[in-house]
Structures are given as C-alpha cells and as structure tokens.
Design goal:
The structure holds two protein chains of two kinds. By secondary structure, chain A is of the alpha+beta class. Chain A has three helices and seven strands; from the N terminus they run αββαββαβββ. Helices cover 14% and strands 22% of the residues of chain A. Chain B has nine helices and seven strands; from the N terminus they run αααβαααβαβααββββ. The chains are: A alpha+beta, B alpha+beta.
Chain lengths: 105, 244
C-alpha cells in the first residue's frame, strides 16, 4: 500500500480550509488558570487569544496550532493539555502517527 | 573477574536507567523551543562553551563543514530581521490567496507551493504572514544569535552535519538554563539578496544552513510534554513488529 495516492502526491491542500488543514488542539483548565497570558505569548502560531482573562484557541479555520507543546510546558499552573496533533491532507497528509504520549521510561 | 565486574556494573546501570532519566535525557526531553527572552545579554563565556559543544559534534569524514557566526550587535540582528520582514511582505503579496478578491491566485500559488514544498508547507506559509505583520519575530528579540553556515565542499551531507552541530549547541545551552530556538527563516536574508552575505563576509564555499536564537528565557519554558508517537518497524529473529 502506497503512503500517498497519485493525486495526493500532486495536490496541495487549500490552506485556511479546516477540512483540509486541521490544526492541533490544546484544552485549558479555567479553574487552574491564573490568567497570566504566558501561553498566549509563547505560542509560535499565535493560536491562543485571551478572552475574559482566560486563554482559548482561535476558532476553527483561524487556529493554526502546530501542537508544539510550548504552552503546555510554560504554564506555571499546569492548566494546559495537548489533546490533538495537527493533520493535513493531500500532499501534506499525515501518514501514520500514534496517540499523544509524554516521554516514556 | 574483570568481566564479572563489568557485567554487574552494566546490570546496575540498566536498572538505574529503567527507573530514572539520565541528565542528558532530561535535557533532551525537556527542551522546548523558546521564543520569549529577557533583554539581559548571555555571558560571553557561556556562548563560547556552547560553541565548543558545536565544535565537537560528529560529522561525515570528520569534515566539520560548518562556520558559526555569533551576532550580538542589535544593529545587525535588527537589520537582518528587517530584510526578512520585507521579503515576507513580498512573498505574501504574491502568494496569499485567502484574502478577499485574491482567490484567482489559488492555482498559481498551489503550483508554486508544490515546487517549493518545504519552504511553503502550511506552517511556514502561515509564519510568512505573521512575520510580515510583525506578529512573529525572526529571532524573537534574543540578545545572541548563532548563525550556522555550511561548507558546501563537506563530505556527504553538510546540511545534516550542521544540524548535528546545532543540536549539540542547543542541548548544551538548555543544560545551562538558557533558551534557544532553531530559526530557518533567516535564510530569506541570505538567499534572495547579497546585502547580508557581503556585510558578514559570507562567500564560497559557505552557504546559509540555519540559525539559532540564544537567550535567557522568560518564565520556565522547558518541560516534558505529550507528543504524537510514530510507528517504528523492528526486525529481529526473522520477524517484523511495529512499535509506537
């Protein structure tokens, strides 16, 4: 079985279309969050916006999270969890990833 | 007798490793790319120690096909940043098809993306817009930058050797409590214009490979986080298994 079909080898997905470009996802624990904004500042994709002193991801289609985990690591309250990696289609199709795991012993 | 002792030592080391990360593993697994830096400069001796970690990296045929350039003059760092911002603005003007009235550009842009499929992957494509808008800095206001140029005459794959040397430097820096970030976008100031090559005296056989921002982090950005697992095919005893 080929990793990519012939059309997938050629076609470029439409950037900005959430069906073709699926961003990563993190979830915020609003109870633990102190509203310090470090996560929003650290995010390389500027995918986190502060709303009512609490962080949230930009809406689908605008969220360009690359699931790097920088927000998770910098959060002093351990209030952020990475739940989804990013997945693209067509030429940039994710071929095979397992689930999200922390470093394992 | 000596062999027995070695065996016992090995068993002990294995048992210890099963239980806890080594110092090296801890640095590797906790390292995060740092993009928030304090203004305070990194002491010169620390940068020199980081460069030593790069100097002792393995390379094909021990060819050491790299040239490191340390930038600590704001005038140069800001100047290169400005060139990259201007270049990103030009790229965006030509390529961006998501704004109103620009959808006719889509097929042209897609053809161009396919040709430059590494530079215009969705992630850097998004970053081009953010850099053009000043929302994403090039070196994130880090006070020290280490540029890595490759010697194109190196054995086999000089880019790879530069990457190995660079990662040695990154890990050394994080082990000292510094933050670093790999910055590939500086390429735009060395690929499409001669200005900065001339200014820094970069000529044949040296060519841009990558760059690192180095500085004191704001907050505690390093830490272990989750990440996708990848399939690893494992061949042993005549069979194949796949582990994640």
């Amino acid at each position: 079985m080929a990793n990519l079909s012939m059309s997938e080898r050629i076609l470029i997905p439409t950037y900005g279309d959430p069906e073709q470009i699926q961003a990563g996802e993190v979830v915020f624990d609003d109870e633990k969050c102190s509203g310090c904004t470090l996560c929003a500042q650290a995010c390389p994709a500027k995918a986190i916006v502060m709303e009512d002193k609490r962080p949230q991801l930009k809406p689908r289609g605008q969220n360009e999270c690359i699931s790097c985990g920088d927000c998770v690591a910098i959060c002093p309250e351990a209030a952020i969890t990475l739940t989804k990696g990013y997945h693209y289609t067509a030429y940039y199709k994710t071929i095979d990833h397992g689930d999200i795991q922390p470093p394992r012993l | 007798m000596a062999e027995m002792a070695t065996k016992a030592a090995r068993a002990e080391a294995m048992e210890r490793m099963e239980k806890e990360w080594t110092e090296m593993e801890r640095v590797i697994l906790s390292r995060r790319s740092v993009r928030l830096y304090k203004k305070e400069q990194v002491p010169e001796f620390m940068v020199k120690r980081i460069l030593e970690a790069g100097r002792f990296a393995p390379s094909a045929g021990n060819s050491q096909p790299w040239k490191f350039v340390v930038l600590r003059d704001p005038e140069i760092i800001d100047g290169i940043t400005e060139t990259v911002v201007e270049t990103c603005k030009k790229f965006r003007a030509v390529l961006e098809y998501r704004r109103p009235g620009a959808s006719w550009r889509r097929p042209l842009t897609k053809a161009f993306i396919r040709l430059r499929h590494n530079d215009l992957h969705p992630v850097p494509f998004g970053a081009i817009g953010m850099i053009a808008d000043g929302k994403l800095g090039l070196w994130h206001s880090a006070p020290t930058v280490i540029m890595i140029f490759k010697d194109v005459r190196g054995v086999s794959n000089p880019d790879l050797d530069c990457g190995i040397a660079g990662q040695n430097m990154v890990l050394a820096a994080h082990s000292m409590g510094l933050g670093t970030c790999w910055v590939g976008f500086a390429k735009l100031a060395f690929e499409y214009t001669d200005k900065w090559k001339k200014r820094l005296g970069i000529e044949f056989p040296y060519k841009y490979a990558s760059s690192l921002s180095v500085g004191w982090p704001i907050g505690n950005p390093d830490g272990m986080v989750g990440r996708q697992t990848h399939p690893v095919d494992w061949y042993e005893n005549g069979t194949k298994k796949t582990i994640y």
